[in-house]
Amino acid sequence: MKDEYFENGYVVRRGLLPADLIAELNQRFADVADGIREPAKNMQVVRNVEVAKGLVTPKTKAHGISKMNFVQADPVLRKYSACVPLLDQVEQLIGRDLISMNSMYLNKPPHVDGRHPLHQDLIYFPFRPADSIVGVWSALEPITRENGCLVMIPGSHKGETHAHDYPDWEHKNHLFLGVKDVDSSGRVHIEMEPGDTVFFHSNIIHGSGFNKTEGLRRAIAIHFANARCEDIWGGHKQTLDKYSPRDDYRLVRGEDPNGYVTHH
Fold first, then answer.
1. Which of 65, 80, 98, 243 has the fewest Cβ atoms within 10 angstroms?
2. How far apart are CA 98 and CA 95, in angstroms?
3. 3-state SS of the chain: helix, strand, coil percent to 5?
């Protein structure tokens, strides 16, 4: 696994999440989307920009949501970052002392521009080196090219970290930044079944396309950093958003020698 990961910048593990966990995660999303349960403190429910501007009327409340951020605040959704098979794979890649961060439930509804431009996740994180940060993304239902699967550019993690900006699109979701002038001809589409999980390097160029179906495209994602990484921001808030992602840090395995996780 490790050799394939560092050669290509990603590796897929099939059927990693159990069916009962998938059902729990999807039900929690539905309950929050429908207003049956309030979002946990510090959790964000993000509407698609076209819905927020009143340009599209979603057929259900869930169809108006593009994602939920910082979902580790929720006692059900945080079960994802505690999933032992998942953590065992992460430990193989970046070591035993693990901080989880940037937790998201990802929803891609139809009839809106839900594309995520090609980008590198490293720009959002204070930790270095890049080899010690891994993204983990699990399908919660069948994910295909038709409903907007992930695309990866194999080997691109070995290159530079590019400058990012909003793409030249009519409608731009908040913080959906993209790289400039990248050859995407070698991209690979990652089609997945429920429970399949892709582990990807923090510097790999990746993104996702339109949902051209009538259903939702649901997934859950999180990043892990080795707790012994350097914080190049020096503990200061240098985020592109008004919210501090540090509220989402959790120590999920091993030790936290630098004291990055100060609560929970």
1. 243
2. 7
3. 25, 30, 50
Q: Which residues contact 13 (CB under 8 A, 6 or more apart)?
A: 1, 89, 196, 197, 198, 199
Residue 59, domain CATH: 2.60.120.620
Question: Domain range for residue 182?
Answer: 2-253
Residue 190 domain flag: yes
How do residues 102-134 score in pLDDT, each as one tens digit? 999 999 999 887 788 899 999 889 999 999 999
Q: What is the pTM of this model?
A: 0.93
The residue to which tokens 């309950």 are assigned = 31
Positive or negative: CA dihedral 50, 52, 56, 61: positive
Confidence at residue 242, expressed as pLDDT on a 0 to 100 scale: 45
Q: How confident is the model over 184-233, as pLDDT tens digits?
A: 889 999 999 999 999 999 999 999 999 999 999 999 999 999 999 999 88
* Residue at 223 is within a domain: yes
- 178-183: Cβ within 8 A, 24+ apart: 178/117, 178/118, 178/119, 178/207, 179/117, 179/118, 179/119, 179/120, 179/205, 182/118, 182/153, 182/156
Helix (H), strand (E) at residue 237: none
Domain annotation covers residue 258: no
8 A C-beta contact, residue 149 and residue 196: no
- The reply to whether 259 falls in a domain is no
Which of 219, 261, 215 has the alpha carbon at shortest distance from 99? 261
Q: Residues 154, 194: contact at Cβ < 8 Å?
A: no
The count of structural domains within the chain is 1
Rg (CA), the chain: 17
